[in-house]
Design goal:
The chain has 488 residues and is of the alpha+beta class. 37% of the residues are buried. Helix content is 15%, strand content 33%. The N terminus is likely disordered. Strand 5 and strand 6 form a beta hairpin. It has 4 domains: 102 residues, Thrombin, subunit H (Beta Barrel); 101 residues, Beta Barrel (Thrombin, subunit H); 87 residues, PDZ domain (Pdz3 Domain); 97 residues, PDZ domain (Pdz3 Domain, Roll), CATH 2.30.42.10. The protein has 11 helices and 25 strands.
Length: 488
């Protein structure tokens, strides 16, 4: 039986072991213990004061704003398909409904970290920490606990904003750093609750900035650090030496599930743009719509354009009437910079426009036929176009637990689907549901059910309302169409 299965592990992203051939020399240290390179100065602390240098003042400034986030989800198991069968009820009686006939409930708990970003009790954490949660609780570093509610959740950036309930005080907060000012080699601290042992601080350096194509979320633009990050650290703070929030710790590459020194944090400038929308009363993140598709510049493309190295975002197509078209972008243009900052890839361009925000204007520096030009792009939200009609599919179909909506330019932009694609798309999947077990994911398009073409979310809800012995589904995932046959 074919299945759709494309799941992302946030807490631990695994990579293949790195094979190293031959002996390795570390730091050029020879048998004498001294550096073999005389140009490298070997310094030791010169005074008792230098020996006593500590990160303690930085931790005292930042740690009170870092919290633990507890999320609980009530998962209902699917009832027996024979629960309503008169034959079984004749032999087993009405008691057959329990535990087999009636849905059983079990609690699924998750633990992560968060950061208080506003004195009113706004807490920022990762979306995957509270995904599907029915109950959420925030525990402060001083031991106090508060119930929390979700204000805004954004799977695309893997960020969520919670609000502490019943808090009648000003909570400790942390100041934002300018993540664009970070440089490779800067010292940073990671504060969170790894493995649930309690608030823990680790130190390291910024290993890389503007790391893209990591595959963690749709807004791939990360700070990489070797500060130890482990499961439970998700949503915690990456702090600079001034005690300011430089990023939100999100994921690691790991062979074992523990820290191997390769961790990733969402830059604080992206975090600020999400928090600003929550403070303005938004319930979802609205990002600028460009109305153009871009391609990464390969070495071959760079050579054909006489570029010294692969860089920029190459325009592939421009939608008629879109902001890109109005700005004058054309297929074949190469976007080199946005807002005065160099663009290395389409992901980098998307990040720059996202943190700039809807309603603003951004100057683009492009290369067209070998000559550089400047264009001004007006940043606006994608038009809704059609009524979204978002619906939760329930009942006994394999799609039960999936939230679907009619595709529009805005939803297509959010789900990263071609703007010309029509139909009904999955926007969310409830963990543990039949749709989740099937492997459905946001962005999947339901083309047909029982051989009938799906034209709207209403059609899909109607066709899945009745029990069937056999389900025939047609699902389009990023252009790949799958025909599925599932027993009812």
């Amino acid at each position: 039986m074919p299945k759709l299965r494309s799941k992302l592990r946030y807490a631990a992203l695994f990579i293949l072991p790195l094979a190293v051939a031959g002996p390795v020399a570390l730091f050029g240290i020879g048998d004498s213990g001294r550096g073999s390179n005389p140009a490298v100065a070997q310094e030791v602390p010169q005074s008792r004061a230098e020996i006593g240098l500590s990160f303690a003042p930085v931790v005292k400034r930042a740690a009170p704003a870092v919290v633990n986030v507890y999320a609980k989800q009530i998962v209902r198991s699917r009832p027996s398909p024979f629960a309503d069968d008169p034959f079984f009820r004749h032999f087993f009686g009405d008691g057959f409904g329990s535990p087999y006939g009636l849905p059983r409930e079990r609690a699924h708990s998750s633990l992560g970290s968060g950061v208080i970003v506003d004195a009113s009790g706004l807490v920022l954490t990762n979306y995957h920490v509270i995904r599907g949660a029915d109950e959420m609780k925030v525990a402060l570093s001083d031991g106090r606990e508060f119930e929390a509610k979700r204000l805004l959740a954004d799977e695309q950036s893997d960020l969520a904003v919670l609000k502490i309930e019943d808090g009648e005080e000003d909570f400790p907060t942390i100041e934002f750093a300018d993540s664009d000012a970070l440089e490779v080699g800067d010292l940073v601290l990671a504060i969170g609750n790894p493995f649930g042992v309690g608030q823990t601080v680790t130190s390291g350096i910024v290993s890389a900035v503007a790391r893209t194509d990591v595959g963690i979320n749709d807004m791939s633009f990360f700070i990489q650090t070797d500060a130890a990050i482990n499961p439970g650290n998700s949503g915690g703070a990456l702090v600079d030496v001034e005690g300011r929030l430089a990023g939100i710790n999100t994921a690691i590459f790991s062979r074992s599930g523990g820290s191997n020194g390769i961790g990733f944090a969402i830059p604080s400038n992206m975090v600020q743009s999400v928090v600003a929308q929550a403070l303005a009363g938004g319930t979802e993140v609205v990002r600028p719509w460009v109305g153009a598709t871009f391609q990464k510049v390969t070495p071959d493309i760079a050579a054909s354009l006489d570029l010294p190295r692969p860089t920029g975002a190459l325009v592939v197509s421009v939608e008629k009437g879109s902001p890109a078209a109005k700005a004058g972008l054309k297929p074949g243009d190469l976007v080199l910079a946005a807002g005065g900052r160099e663009i290395s890839s389409p992901r980098a361009l998307e990040y720059r426009l996202a943190i700039r925000g809807v309603g603003q204007k951004e100057e683009l520096r492009i290369m067209r036929r070998g000559r550089e030009e400047a264009l001004v792009l007006a940043l606006q939200a994608a038009p809704e176009g059609v009524l979204a009609d978002e619906r939760l599919i329930d009942g006994y179909s394999p799609l039960s637990g999936a939230t679907v909506a009619n595709l529009s330019p805005r939803l297509s932009d959010r789900l990263r689907l071609p703007s010309e694609k029509k139909g009904v798309a999955v926007t969310e999947v409830k963990p543990g549901s039949p749709a989740d077990q099937l492997g459905l994911a946001p962005g999947d398009v339901v083309v047909a059910v029982q051989g009938r073409r799906i034209g709207s979310a209403r059609d899909l809800a109607r066709l899945t309302a009745e029990r069937q012995r056999l389900w025939r589904l047609t699902i389009d995932r990023r252009g790949r169409v799958s025909q599925l046959v599932i027993g009812g």
